[in-house]
Specification:
- This protein folds into 3 domains: 92 residues, Orthogonal Bundle (Arc Repressor Mutant, subunit A); 107 residues, D-Maltodextrin-Binding Protein, domain 2, CATH 3.40.190.10; 93 residues, D-Maltodextrin-Binding Protein, domain 2 (3-Layer(aba) Sandwich).
- The protein is built from 10 helices and 13 strands.
- The strands form 4 sheets. Strands 5, 6, 7, 8, 11, 12 and 13 form a 7-stranded mixed β-sheet that branches. The chain has a two-stranded antiparallel sheet with strand order 1-2. It has a two-stranded antiparallel ribbon with strand order 3-4.
- Helix 1 crosses helix 4.
- The radius of gyration is 23 Å and the shape is elongated.
- The termini are far apart.
């Protein structure tokens, strides 16, 4: 049930909702800069300071410390942050509940797996905006574990990820599977791979398991990285062998810089949509899930 933050008193003593205080606090959490928050919110620094002082007086605790080293959350501020995000989310949901029917009033905070951001964020956001033309989106690349925590706390509304974290309040939908191909600047077959120049990709637990089963002799490589884009950059800079997303692999092979390792099959990485359990039947979540499922299905069909 919606439980808004009631801050301050009117002359008649009635509590008033000051949602801008939460917005200011949460923006400061991200920027750790009064100047930057003032710019982002379109107000003066004195307004930011006044809002924070009002909030601190209302909760009865100091939330930030300011020094020459910068602006940092206090212990009380750290404790308050998760509650502030929940209250902000509930306020958004309350506003959407009384807004005109349709998707025009929707504002969504969406997480996307770091390894998907470079390759797919443009297409995904374009697809979403085509369907939800008047909606607002805040997109944040991250890792699966953090996105799951953010979905539970209400800091995010929807996420696209590699590794679902089981939780009674979360709902996951399988969207499709990405392919990673093994390419090399100096090896044509598995037997020719030089372990000293092999770059191991620890993209997700599922990928690591598939890699251990396919190439157990290369798991202990001296160099490893957690993103396909970064791995591709390392290969281009130093040469060697490694798995990268199929599209990027095809691009590098087409340029003549690398070749496919012919006797090593592609490795798959499942992709999931994630959302809070209580929003899984919402019209917007169902639409977004269908959009993503079509996109990833098309990508994999095209590669097959």
């Amino acid at each position: 049930m919606f439980n808004p933050l009631l801050i301050g008193q009117t002359d008649q003593g009635a509590a008033t909702v000051q949602i801008e205080l939460l917005d200011t606090f949460l923006d400061l959490v991200e920027t750790r800069s009064f100047h930057r928050t003032a710019e982002r919110l379109g107000v003066t620094q004195s307004t930011v300071s006044a809002r924070l002082q009002t909030l601190e007086a209302s909760v009865g605790a100091r939330l930030f410390t300011r020094s020459r080293a910068g602006t940092d959350l206090t212990t009380e501020g750290l404790r308050f942050e998760s509650h502030a995000r929940l209250m902000r989310r509930d306020w958004n949901e309350a506003c959407r509940a009384v807004a005109p029917s349709g998707d025009a009033a929707m504002t969504m905070r969406i997480g996307i797996q770091n390894d998907l951001a470079d390759a797919y964020i443009g297409d995904i956001v374009r697809d979403f905006r085509h369907v939800f033309g008047q909606s607002a989106f805040y997109i944040e690349p991250d890792y699966s574990s953090q996105m799951c925590r953010d979905l539970v706390s209400g800091a995010q509304d929807f996420a696209v990820m590699f590794t679902p974290q089981p939780h009674p309040d979360l709902h996951f939908v399988t969207l499709g599977e990405l392919s990673y191909r093994l390419i090399s600047s100096d090896a044509e077959t598995r037997a020719q791979i030089n372990p000293a120049t092999y770059i191991y990709g620890h993209f997700s637990p599922a990928f690591e398991q598939a890699h251990r089963e396919a190439l157990p002799e290369l798991v202990g490589a001296p160099l490893s990285v957690g993103q396909s884009t970064s791995l591709a950059a390392l290969l281009q800079s130093m040469g060697g062998t490694g798995f990268v997303m199929a599209d990027k692999a095809a691009e590098l092979v087409a340029l003549g810089q690398f070749r496919y390792v012919s006797d090593v099959p592609a490795l798959g990485q499942p992709v999931f949509a994630a959302m809070h359990l209580r929003t899984r039947v919402a019209k917007s979540r169902r639409k977004m899930t269908r959009i993503l499922a079509r996109r990833f299905t098309k990508v994999e069909t095209a590669r097959d």
